[in-house]
Every structure is written in C-alpha cells, then in structure tokens.
Specification:
The chain is α+β, with helices and mostly antiparallel strands. The protein has one domain: Spore Coat Polysaccharide Biosynthesis Protein SpsA, Chain A. It is built from 3 helices and 6 strands. Strands 5-1-6 form a 3-stranded mixed β-sheet. It has a 3-stranded antiparallel β-sheet with strand order 2-3-4, with no helix packed on it. The longest helix has 6 residues, at about 55-60. The radius of gyration is 14 Å and the shape is globular.
Length: about 130
C-alpha cells in the first residue's frame, strides 16, 4: 500500500464464498478478475483489495463511496469508476499472486462458491 501512486490492488482471502478472489494480471497489468460473484463488474474486487492515494482523493473531490444507491456488490466499482480505469490499476502482492489480506467475520467461513476443480492459473496459499 505504501508505494501506491494512484490505485493499487491485491488478492483478498476468504471472500465471496471462495478461499480468495484476485485481480488477474498479465505483463504487470490487470486483465480480469478471479472471483466467485459477478465477474462482469467493472472492478470485481472487495473493499479490502484496493488502496487509493490521498492525492487521487483530493484531485477528485466529487468522488463518493455511496452507502445507498449502488446495486449490491457494486459499491467498489461505482467508487473506482469515478477515479481510475482498470488499465491504471497497480497490482501489488507479487502481481496479485499472494494473499496478504483476509476478509474476516466472526462467523464460520462459507466457501460455497469455491470451484470443485481449481480453475485459477496461479496456486495461492491462503
């Protein structure tokens, strides 16, 4: 996070009914999303999976993170669309191949969306 210039992204463990979700990175650029829910979202990422530079926030004073008015699961996308593009994202955590952050709750982990056969191209330990 410390080296974020604009908006950085990384995998999140135990989210979306999976062991992890992550940006898919090729040649240092985000090209898609490994997610268990609505991969068609512009930014199919959990709140715990990105950081925004303070300079970006200050340069977009009208950008808001809506508590209400966004469709379920679209808050992150609705916010990020106001300040960046997918092409500008900065992959962290070894090109999004390491889980360094977990989405935790005080309830039993639900992995209902975990694929029966590992479909990701990267083997990630959670």
């Amino acid at each position: 996070m410390r080296t974020t210039r604009k908006v950085s992204v990384w995998p999140v463990g135990l989210v979306g009914g999976r062991r992890y979700e992550r940006p898919v990175v090729e040649n240092g650029k985000v090209v898609g999303w490994y997610t268990g829910w609505r991969a068609d979202r512009p930014f199919a990422i959990d709140m715990a999976g990105f950081a925004v530079s303070l300079q970006v926030i200050l340069s977009h004073p009208k950008a808001v993170f809506k508590r209400r008015g966004s469709q379920p699961g679209m808050q992150e996308s609705d916010f990020l669309k106001q300040i960046t593009t997918v092409d500008e994202l900065e992959p962290k955590a070894n090109n999004c191949t390491k889980v360094l952050v977990w989405h935790t709750r005080t309830e039993k982990v639900n992995l209902a969306n975990e694929p029966k056969y590992h479909l990701d191209t990267v083997n990630i330990e959670v």
